[in-house]
Amino acid sequence: MLDIVDQELFSQLEAHLRSTELNWLLGAGISFDAKLPLMYPLTDKVLSDIESENADLYNKVILPLKNELDDKCHIEHILSHLGDYAALAERSSSKTIKILDDIVTLDEFVKAHQLVIQNISNIIRFGYKKGWGSEPDEIGSADNQIVCVESHTEFIDSLFNYSQAGVTERRKAVNLFTTNYDTLIEDSLALNRIPYWDGFSGGAVAYRTTSYGKNIPDAGQRANVIKIHGSIDWHLCDKGYIWRVRDNNKYPSTLGRVLIYPQATKYIATQQDPFSTQFDFFRKSLHSENSNVLAVCGYSFGDEHINNEIELAMSKDQNRTTLVAFLECADEIPAFLENMRKSIYGNRIFIVSKRGLYVGNDEPIKRMDEDFWWTFKGVTDLLKNGCEV
User: Which of 138, 196, 275, 296 gives 20 to 30 Å between its CA and that of 225?
Assistant: First the structure.
């Protein structure tokens, strides 16, 4: 039986998730049940496919650069490293860089970068689930796509059709920030008939209408989808325009660059850079003058850029952001969150974990012995039914 103080904290958690100014940060963990890989299985699959597809480029460029990085590096680190080398080659008079005993050209760096992005896109588009133990891997293909949308549609349904009860008329559009490349959030909003804005105008073929410095429209939609790291259906054409095009469309040409972060440098003018624009939206949301909530699910706080923005915003005297993080915390709380909950603004840090609910620097409050409310499905249930069990 919970005491009155514990019940009050659970009530506060429920109230935060019904905030009239609500932001979500959604990471790769939410797409696991959709048969999309987490970052490290994705990295292993991409590298394995490239080695089979183009062993020469893999051994000459990608593998040596990977070996320069930390053992814990993943595919985004490798992409960033490729981009750095491409920038160095671009500035050199010979347009080359020596790696081990090989001379690597700028074109080879760019080709390797594009090959990695194309393989990421195919895996995310068709699906891939790493087998456990003796289980075989599930590998999707163009003819047999295995990606599932059900867990995402249930989340969107709970968020907008249950959690918003009584606050819909006075609530701002919910900001759905995501580091994921897939289109499951957008598809789930459409399947639930929730109008949303994503910075594009059009239908099956759409063009980007927003740019750095602009604000998100404040009327006409119930959700805003801000894809911080780009998307498998974003394409850069030769004229510098950004199209949103699904893979089965024959026009416009999607042979151009797929816009997944991080890109090789100098591919687009700064004012047109979609990644800086997306991040600016995230930054502005954290600096709102109103009381607001950043709820986090599927993100393990491993991105220093994102973490720094959260910490910088919440440490300001006038900041009114409350952070609600859904994390397993099986062994320990990530160092970033551990430091934040011990800070002077720690009372605005809620951590929903396997061990229970942490508020600030206090010990966790258990809801039940085996609790999965920190998972994507658990969050969906919490939005729909509240904290009672």
Answer: 138
SS in 3 state form for 1-21?
Answer: CCCHHHHHHHHHHHHHCCCCC
Measured CA to CA, the distance from residue 123 to residue 147 in angstroms comes to: 10
Q: What single letter denotes the amino acid at residue 98?
A: K
Q: Is the pLDDT of residue 273 over 90?
A: no
Give the side-chain half-sphere CA count within 13 A for 382: 26
* Residue 329 sits in the same domain as residue 221: yes
Q: Are 95 and 89 in contact (CB under 8 A)?
A: yes
Domain boundary among 111, 139, 167: 139
- The residues, any chain, with a CB within 8 Å of residue 119's CB and separated by 6 or more, are 46, 49, 50, 53
β-pairing, 242-245 vs 257-260, is: unpaired
What local confidence, expressed as pLDDT, does residue 92 receive?
Answer: 96
Radius of gyration of the chain (CA): 22
Q: Are residues 196 and 83 part of one domain?
A: no
293-346 residue pLDDT tens: 999 999 999 999 999 999 999 999 999 999 999 999 988 999 999 999 999 999
What predicted TM-score, i.e. pTM, was given to this entire model? 0.93
Please identify which residue in the block is written with the tokens 């699904």. Answer: 246
Q: Are residue 93 and residue 180 in the same domain, yes or no?
A: no
Q: Which domain holds residue 189?
A: 4-34+148-230+265-385
Q: Could you tell me the two tokens for 285? A: 């949301």
What angle in degrees, to the nearest 10, is found between the helix axes of 106-126 and 75-91? 160
Shared domain for 45 and 124, answered yes or no, is yes
Residues above pLDDT 70, as percent of the chain? 92
Are residues 106 and 89 in contact, defined by beta-carbon separation less than 8 angstroms? yes
* Model pLDDT for residues 345-388, shown as the tens digit of each residue: 999 999 999 999 999 999 999 988 889 999 999 999 999 999 98
Of 139, 167, 191, which residue is a domain's last?
A: 139
Q: In this structure, is the dihedral angle defined by the CA atoms of residues 297, 302, 304 and 305, taken in order, positive or negative? A: negative
What gap in Å lies between CA 213 and CA 333, rounded to an integer? 35
- Whole-number Å distance between alpha carbons of 101 and 103: 7
DSSP 206-233: EEE---TTPPPPSSS-SEEEEETTEEEE
Work out how many domains the chain is built from and give that number: 2
Residue 62 one-letter amino acid: I
Residues 82 and 107: beta-carbon distance below 8 Å? no
